[in-house]
Amino acid sequence: MLSVLVLSACGSKDSSGDQSKGSGKNALEAIKEKDKIVFGVKNDTRLFGLKDPKTGNIEGFDIDIAKEIAKIILGDESKAEFKEVTSKTRIPLLQKGDIDAIVATMTITEERKKEVDFSDVYFEAGQALLVKKGSPIKSIDDIKKGTKVLAVKGSTSAVNIREKAPDATVLEFENYAEAFTALKAGQGDTLTTDNAILYGMVDEDPNYQVVGDIFTDEPYGIAVKKDSPELVQAINDALKELKDNGKYDELYKKWIKTSN
Questions:
Q1: Per-residue confidence of the chain (260 residues) as pLDDT tens digits?
Q2: For the sheet containing 223-225, what is the strand order?
Q3: Number of neighbouring beta carbons within 10 Å of residue 89
Q4: Strand 101-102 versus strand 37-41 pairing type
Q5: Three-class SS of residue 138?
Q6: Integer distance in angstroms from the first to the last C-alpha of the chain?
Q7: Reported pTM
Q8: Rounded to an integer, what distance in angstroms lies between the CA atom of residue 63 and that of residue 181?
């Protein structure tokens, strides 16, 4: 009888674990069941995702796009929840299941496709340079040996600048706010990332300007866990609807600054 009880207890535990682990639901079905989508977003990227210190709300282009996607998939934009990520933490948080999707100025690359699935491109950016007005740096050609370039950990920008200007000294920071603070404190000569993000910094402090032409293509995509075709399709359908009905253009004009 004791053996039967032990076996019964073990069988019950395994059965419960299997049921929880292998419910058979795909990512989209799981989102619809819990009736919310948790998006990983940046809190420090003006124009895309920035936390308002007065209200505590996160605002920006990425945030509004995420809300519209939640509205289309779940019927209500309030069913979008937001969790802060950085360039370094966003993929690990997605893989852990802490978030359902990343909408955080994330460039689609072949390397990242090995770890996540991407939606269609929802924003076209390009890498550029930010300097204090009056700087002798006018373009990527002015980045020489001894030039200190500031970038963000885990970003494609940090990789690209080492390829485009191999003699430069690259200093990496946890996020854009830290990098911009370092630039203003004189810890570097220029800051590099996507031009749209740099325009947000200019919007914050007009003593700085974006210089030169873009020197990379940075197509942004929305990332989800690998092997989530249903969720990717739902997001792509939502993006198409936003572009077809004019909402995408409305949000673009609301947030994106393209001049100093």
A1: 344 433 334 443 333 333 334 457 899 999 999 999 999 999 988 899 999 999 999 999 999 999 999 999 999 999 999 999 999 999 999 999 999 999 999 999 999 999 999 999 999 999 999 999 999 999 999 999 999 999 999 888 999 999 999 999 999 999 999 999 999 999 999 999 999 899 999 999 999 999 999 999 999 999 999 999 999 999 999 999 999 999 999 999 999 865 44
A2: 80-84, 37-41, 101-102, 223-225, 116-118
A3: 20
A4: parallel
A5: coil
A6: 80
A7: 0.78
A8: 24
Q: Which two tokens stand for residue 172?
A: 């990496």
Write the CB contacts of 247 (distance below 8 Å, at least 6 apart in sequence).
Answer: 68, 241
How many residues are recorded in the chain? 260
Residue 14: burial class (beta carbons within 10 Å; 0-12, 13-18, 19+): exposed
**Location of structure tokens 């393209």:** 258
Q: Is the dihedral of CA 193, 198, 204, 209 positive or negative?
A: positive
CA–CA gap between residue 99 and residue 93 (Å, rounded): 6
**DSSP class of 197:** H
The one-letter amino acid at 51: K
Residue in 103, 110, 34, 113 with CA at minimum distance from that of residue 74 = 34
